[in-house]
Amino acid sequence: MRKSRWLSWLSNDLLDYLLIILSALFLLGGVVLFIRTFHLYEQAKVRHLTTGPSWWFEKISEAVGLLTLALWSALSSYKDWLRRHLEIVTYAVWMKKVVFALWWAVVFALAMSAVRIFFIFNHYSDKFVFHLVTMLPLSFWLVYELMTLRAERRYYHKQPLCNIVAAGLLERGNEFLNAHDFDKAHDAFLKACETAPEGIFLWCQLAHFCELFRNNTTETDKYMAKAEELISAEKANSDSDKACYFNFLGMILYERGEYEKGLEYMKQSIDLRPNPGRIKSYEEKLSEFKAKQQNTQT
Hints:
The protein is 86% helix and 0% strand. With 298 residues, it is mainly alpha-helical. It contains 12 helices and no strands.
């Protein structure tokens, strides 16, 4: 358990600290570049040198690009922190806003990178290849970040607030489960179901948890009955929800020793919506069942 907490700290808190440091460095670089630009302008005036609009645009775009990256780093750190507290409604609301702001920050940073490459091509053609090689990794990374944020933006835009909060509670429940705090994990899973009562997966997940970790068949049957009620009421209109229900029902029945019936439901789940994880689980259970049959026969 100590090891898991240590790794959790490395993956969460350390990453946040690194993003904050990165944000501070970008911010410092942007401010220094602004000051240096005006200092160069004052020197040009003293020497009666002309500074055209293109010179100003180039320098300002460099500084603004660094400040935009500073904003991205700060918002990314805040987003990671919010993701660990989505069970609170206020933070779920802020998560939607932060993802939206991050999207535009990356778009703007990508635009500034394009402007920088354009100026290098027009004014520093002799060193264009060198500058391009140094700029391309940043540009590719920004494109990747943009695609990732696009998916996140769609998710948070389409999902009702209750589903986002429920996902946060589910994440918190898994953290308690990994820490072997089963009572708190149960409370988090139950609260997730109460927050989004039409979530088939949430009720099935809670039922499976009760079967495996609380050995409470009464609770398991109660929560699976709730999921079945949603299926019967046609509130689960997709094959995905039905496949989820059949998969969890199959795993629960298998755990109770009803191997053939459990495997049959797991197979129905795969037929409805093939999923690599479900296929792997089904194959493992099937192999285990065949091994038990052979042991019985011998």
